[in-house]
């Protein structure tokens, strides 16, 4: 078998829970993560390298729908900053979990439309596998 | 991690090569099989249980397009018999490979439209993962 070869690189797109508060991973992406650990990685922690992508949607909280006439550039700046911090906290959850389990990982954020960004990043990063959360449709796709 | 738990059940739909001769697996499903071994199973042979499904398409060699006025029921019977044997030989390839590598497996054939049969069998068998061959589109889907 191939455990002397390069580890299996699994890319995972993660997003926040829609519940307000501290940025928690969504239920679907946490399920996908748990599924991946128990069904793919299993005890073979050295054989896998996990890649976490969080796509930040520019209008995530409907900012563009609001009257923004009185918004100053500073407001935009501080919102971007806040979103960035939330994204980092989200990724921190997965990186910490991997660290605890001894699985190598990388994590990064990108801005844009999730579908487009995920496809773009898959082409760029060329993972062996892409895991995305789903809402009861099954978490798996390549 | 979860290696004390039930093995990961991976179902794989396999088909024959379109090249004539002894029933060989198609290039795409052999690639999918190799990919699964090297990227999912890796050295963790105890952690996986492979399920091979071969769907036999009733008109696979265009029999219905032929003039069948003179075909006797025996002809049908012997053709069904021949198809069945080809299917069994095909599955034998995968079962032998698994046996050689020490991976538990099961294999069976069904008749019908591959898409419908595969979906039906996935619902019935409830694998953790479905692997299907593809023609350059990437071998993975759940």
From TrEMBL, chains A, B:
GO MF assignments: AMP binding
InterPro entries per UniProt: At3g01520-like_plant, Rossmann-like_a/b/a_fold, UspA
Domain of life: Eukaryota
Domain UspA: 26-142
A Pfam family per the record: Usp
PANTHER family for this protein: ADENINE NUCLEOTIDE ALPHA HYDROLASES-LIKE SUPERFAMILY PROTEIN
Name of this chain's protein: UspA domain-containing protein
Species annotation: Aegilops tauschii subsp. strangulata (Goatgrass)
Organism lineage: Eukaryota, Viridiplantae, Streptophyta, Embryophyta, Tracheophyta
